[in-house]
Amino acid sequence: MNTKMGNRLFDGVNTALLLVALILCLAPFLHILSISLSSNKPIMSGDVTIFPVDLNWEAYNRVLADAAMIRSLGLSVGLTVLFTVLCMVMTIFAAYPLTKTELKGRKVFMYMIVFTMFFSGGIIPEYILVKELHLVNTIWSLILPLLVNPFYLIILITFFNGIPKSLEESAELDGSSHFGTLIRIILPLSMPAIATLSLFYAVNRWNGFMDSLFYITDPNLYPLQLKLYQMIMNSMMTDQMQMEGAQIVQILPESLKAASIVVATLPILVVYPWLQRYFVSGIMLGSVKG
Fold first, then answer.
1. How many helices (DSSP H) and strands (DSSP E) are in the chain?
2. Which residue from 135, 184, 259, 267 has the fewest beta carbons nearer than 10 Å?
3. With contact defined as beta carbons under 8 Å apart, do 139 and 74 qualify?
4. Rounded CA gap, 42 and 72, in Å?
5. How far lies 61's CA from each of 137, 184, 242, 250, 260, in Å?
6. b/e string for 198-231 if b means 16 or more Cβ within 10 A?
7. Through-space distance between the first and last CA atoms of the chain, rounded to whole angstroms
């Protein structure tokens, strides 16, 4: 009986703590969502908390009504997918050879990778390099400079090293090449790590803003984040008004910012549940014996 009471108490405390953590995580997002759906007066008076006041969709109408915004959204989706695929291909093909102790110069390569984590050329040399390669105003300026993240590369190397070497040796005895072993054995066992790093790469590219601000000046190539930035800046510099009969409706910059944040966040929130099963597999992978 004491054990049951202790377990119930433990479960109750855990549930309460998880609810508190959930509220703390959701409250800022709900606040932003409420601002994006509220009318001007309660926003200006500070009456909006986690629930909308005087429901108003005008901010979303302004964000989504622009054809250029839809084009930027589609461009960002395609850019994120292409970026994630290329980054994972390069990261995998760089990580697997670096797990081989017989690779000549392996330590030198690892030192060079770690060195780039702490030191870089800086923004100006990087811009000059991109410009000299004629990548300005192309999507490749948003892909090639960030193609391999050294931290993610080290994570994948560590994960590959955790796979039993006996599996690779067995494959080699059966006549499998290194490429065949990577495709048939290593990658299927590494799906949790690959899914996790893919999500990291995708989120970094989706939220990326500064590089597009530096390298993209053609409005037709604006990714979503840069387009939203331009819209917010315009809303702060000019009075955005539209006539509805004799009534003037003004869109507050705070409402437009909130709507922009929600629009930019939703695609990642939609993708995450699809990848969640791989995170669960990664947690359970080490618990299977035999």
1. 14, 2
2. 184
3. no
4. 31
5. 29, 49, 12, 13, 11
6. bbbbbebbbebeebbebbbeeeebbbbbbbbbeb
7. 36
207 alpha carbon, distance to own chain's centre: 6
* Structure-block tokens of residue 29: 């997002």
Radius of gyration of the chain (CA): 25
> What is the 3-class SS of 72-141, one letter each residue?
HHHHHHHHHHHHHHHHHHHHHHHHCHHHCCCCCCHHHHHHHHHHHHHCCCCHHHHHHHHHHCCCCCCHHH
Is pLDDT at 249 greater than 60 in this prediction?
A: no
pLDDT tens digit sequence for 138-148: 999 999 998 99
Phi and psi at residue 247, to the nearest 5°: -100, 135
Q: Give the whole-angstrom CA distance, residue 161 versus residue 112.
A: 19
Which residue type is seen at 114?
V
User: 100 with 182: CB under 8 angstroms?
Assistant: no
Residues 6+ apart with CB under 8 A from 198: 84, 88, 275
Phi-psi map region of 46: left, alpha, beta (phi>0 left; psi -120 to 50 alpha) = left
Please give, one letter per residue, the 3-state secondary structure of 193-243.
HHHHHHHHHHHHHHHCCHHHHHHCCCHHHCCHHHHHHHHHHHHHHCCCEEE
Q: What is the pLDDT of residue 33?
A: 87
pLDDT in tens, 58-99: 888 887 777 888 888 889 999 999 999 999 999 999 999 998
The count of other CB atoms within 10 Å of the CB of residue 161 is 12
| Closest to 204 measured CA to CA, from 95, 128, 91 | 91
